[in-house]
Structure formats: C-alpha cells, structure tokens
Amino acid sequence: MQFNVKGITFNHDDLEKVELTEIKTETISHAHYFHMLSDTRAILILRAGDFVEPSFITKYLEKGMNSLHQLSIINKEDLLVYKQKWSQLKVAKTQILQMKVRDELIKKVSNDFWHSNEKSFLSFVIAAYEEFYQFEPLVLENFQEKSMIMYTRTLLTSSIATLVSLCNGIVDYKFIKDMYNTTFLLDYGMIAYDNFSYVMAQACEAERNRPGSGPDYLVKLKRSEREINLFKNHPELSYNIARDFEKDFTYPEVLDLILLHHEKCDGSGFPKGYSYSGISDTATLLMFCDYMIPFEEHIFSVGDGQRVLYDYFKDLSSNESKYLLPINKVLASWEGMMVWAKDINQKVVDECEEEVAS
C-alpha cells in the first residue's frame, strides 16, 4: 500500500522498524520516522533533516512508545565519504593536497547531485553540519521552532556555502568553516526576535526573485512599520547577533559579509546602499547562496539533490533580474566546476576503455 503523509510518499515495504533508543540525538535526523497506527494509517513523528533533541526520545518513551518505523533518506556510504573528505581537507598540509581533496569532493558532489537524480542532498547537509557547526544547539533549535522554512533553508544555504567556496578556489579548512557558520546566521535576525510569518516568507521570496522588491511587497500589503523595518534591517540585526560569537571564528572579519548580502550592483540595495565597487568577491559567494535557495520548506527525499544543486542553480542563472547582483563570476565558477567534474570522470572512463581495447 502507498502512503502520502505530509508530502512524503512511500510504500509500507519501504519502512524498517527501529527501537526509539537507536535514534541518534544532538544531530540531524537521517530518516523520516512514523508511528504506524495500523497497516493503512501512519503518523509522521520526526522528519528527515529535523534536529533531534534528547528530550524527543524521552517524551515518546514516557508515552510508552518504544519503536518507530523508519523511512531512510540518506546513503550511509556517501555520508561517510563526505565526512572523510572534510577530515582530509582539515589535515592537508600543502595547497597541492588541499586542491586534490577539493577536486575529489567536487567530483563526487557533481556525480551525486548535478548529473544524477537518485540521491538526497541530506547526506551532504549532515556531513557539513557535523563537521562545521560550532554554535550551541539553541541556535538550530530556534530556527526549527520559529520557522521550518528558515530552518531547512539555512541547512541548505550553509551547506552550499562550503561548496561554492571550493568552486572558487578556497581550500582553507578554517575559512570554509567560518563561511559555513556565517551563512548559518545570515538571516538569524529575522527569527531571533519574533516568529517568521508566512507574509514575511513571501516578501523574502519576492526579494529573491527580484532584488529590491521585498520591502515593496510588504508596503503593498500594508504591513506594520515594525515588520517592514525588520525586513530592511535584518542584515544588521543578524550581524549584531553574530558578533556575540566572534571569538569562535578564525577569521571574524567574515562576519562583515552578513551586512552585504542584500546590496546590489547599482547601489539600490539595503541596508547601506553599497554599489558594485563596495562589494567584495567573497561577499558575492554568500549572495549566491542566499539567492539560490527558495524561501520554502524543503522536505528531504531520495533524489532531491539534483533539485537543490542543479535546478535551483538554473533558476537563478536564468532569472532576468540577476543583473542587479554581482554574482556572474560565481555562477560561472559553480557551473564550470560541476561540468568539469563530469568531463574529467568521462575522460578517465574513455582512457580505461581505450586501454582495454588495445
């Protein structure tokens, strides 16, 4: 029998029964977990990608629920490879070794998600989170509690930040870690002081589709001055919060990039109105991450990797308003590296076939 529970489609045979105590806590869930009321009715208890707090296990054990049914999303072997590659980059002593790891990582990402629609991006998300996330769980819990749109989007954008750094020749492990955590706080100012409303999400998506239109969207709907100001000032609000974590960053100046992620080429952005010449190349990497991922709740599923890495990129690169953003170089480097990885692999295959034939 086929089930469709809150946007998750699966067959009963896809499920595996697991003990509640086997579910790993203090990290991101690897699977969707259901309570089966009968052979025809399932209740979603925990989603793949959700942060699993220890209290989750305690809560359901106290209710007498000792097991759940698991719908696995990630590929455990892929997760292990990604974690190994990040560990290798961390200990690489020379730039040659760093570039070698970079190339191997990009090749795998390209094959897994750019050229294939069979795997979930969640494997990479978990590997990046477990490798780089440095804040107290409260930051992640805040996102999850206030807005699932912002929570899942933040997991995606911060993971994309590590990849776009590699695609642009950044192989310093500590700098990549700082880029991950800076991106994690990019929009934290929007949820730290209030719940993130549906209207605010729509304004953010309007801004993403056409830079500069977000505040106008809120004005058109006659939203309060407080809400409009929150939107306009969220880069500064996020930056001020991020400064509290400055001591945890190897390169604390990276936090300054938060202030620039809504500036535009022509100087009409916010909050400061900087133009192209005032926006660093590194700032454009965070811009790319922010404008690439939609403001919508992402349900992790097998095969979603291509949608995240390829489809969202193509949507951004074909956006008629992208000329307002100084991200053309980043778009070119991203696509160039993804295509290069496939070409290199094909070249190796061709050479092996020629060798066998001879």
Secondary structure: elements and pairs:
Elements: E1 2-5, E2 8-11, E3 16-19, E4 27-28, E5 31-38, E6 41-46, E7 51-52, H1 54-62, E8 67-72, H2 76-91, H3 95-114, H4 122-132, H5 137-146, H6 148-167, H7 173-184, H8 198-209, H9 214-220, H10 225-242, H11 281-292, H12 304-317, H13 328-357
Helix pairs in contact: 2-3, 2-4, 3-13, 4-6, 5-6, 6-7, 6-11, 8-9, 9-10
Net shape: globular
Which secondary-structure class do the elements indicate?
alpha+beta
Strand content: 5-15%
Spatial separation of the terminal alpha carbons: 52 Å
CATH architecture of the largest domain: Orthogonal Bundle
Instruction: Note the main sheet.
Output: 4 strands, antiparallel
Chain-averaged pLDDT: 93
Radius of gyration: 21 Å
- CATH fold assignment of the largest domain: Hypothetical protein af1432
Uncertain regions spanning at least 5 consecutive residues: 348-358
What do these coordinates show?
This protein is of the alpha+beta class and 358 residues long. The protein folds into 2 domains: 2-72, no CATH class; 76-341, Hypothetical protein af1432, CATH 1.10.3210. It has 13 helices and 8 strands. The strands form 3 sheets. Strands 3-8-5-6 form a 4-stranded antiparallel beta sheet, with no helix packed on it. The protein has a two-stranded antiparallel sheet with strand order 1-2. A hairpin with a 2-residue loop joins strand 5 (31-38) and strand 6. Helix 4 (122-132) crosses helix 6 (148-167). The protein starts with a strand and ends with a helix.
